[in-house]
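Researcher: Structure for this, please.
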Amino acid sequence: MSDPALPAPRHLPVMPQEVVHYLTPSSGQIVVDATVGIGGHARLLAERVAPSGRLIGLDRDPRMLDLARLRLHGLPVTLVHRSFDELPAVLKELGVDIVDGVLADLGVASDQLDDPGRGLSFRTEGPLDMRLDPTSGEPASALVNRLGERELADIIWTYGEERFGRRIARRIVQEREESPLATTTQLAELVRRCVPRGKHQRIDPATRTFQALRIAVNDEMHALVRFLEALPAILRPGGRAVVISFHSLEDRRVKQAFRNKEIYAQLTRKVVQPGESEVRNNPRARSAKLRAVRKNDPVD
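Model: Predicted structure, token format:
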């Protein structure tokens, strides 16, 4: 059971019952939460592998790890400040050869989105940063003020699937000649002027552009590919993996990797999505897609 003395999190773990169901963690196992966030999923998993098992949690955001330590206090957990695609190196450093289960929730935590200082949301004024690890890499402001029009357009189209990407890139280049783009609201207003909004359109016109730039700033798609390529060597035969994605680009790559019948048996024949009650309680879960596999036993 969760400790009621812990501070209430702003972020709610997505599909927690489904994660536990498909990973089937049990006492004595070694399980990895490769994107631990504030520890919502990790606590559920750590409680089930305790007392003789171990949960290894990675996150690239040191602030999220600080929050996770509060939630996971007293449980058999090792937390590491690293990106999920560095999992093989982390396990080697910890002296772990293979694990029983791996979870990767590819979403951004509400605690990150709701912090204006992170620059991840277009809803509030903040610096145009977008780095999930604020201790390394270049912020989005450097990227939008440095790249050429074609490069910006390619990023916005490839990672945001925004059909007005070229128009947005052109406007960015024009406006930065007058003054560099420095804040989230500057960029959001620029995008809104470029994207026609339909009468029944629910999402903000800036959504896709912000998604695209965040993915580019954090190298998220390449990191996902590296993680998926490394996963078979990390899992023991019979071990399980669950990945929760939040947009079609991620889900496409997960689906393709998990289709390899020589390596995996599908645990989810169709993608699993949150139920209506969960979406009502946690609207940010509405786009989540869960896929799960079990690693095949070696062929004699």
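Researcher: Any notable elements?
Model: The chain is about 45% helix and 15% strand. The mean pLDDT is 93.
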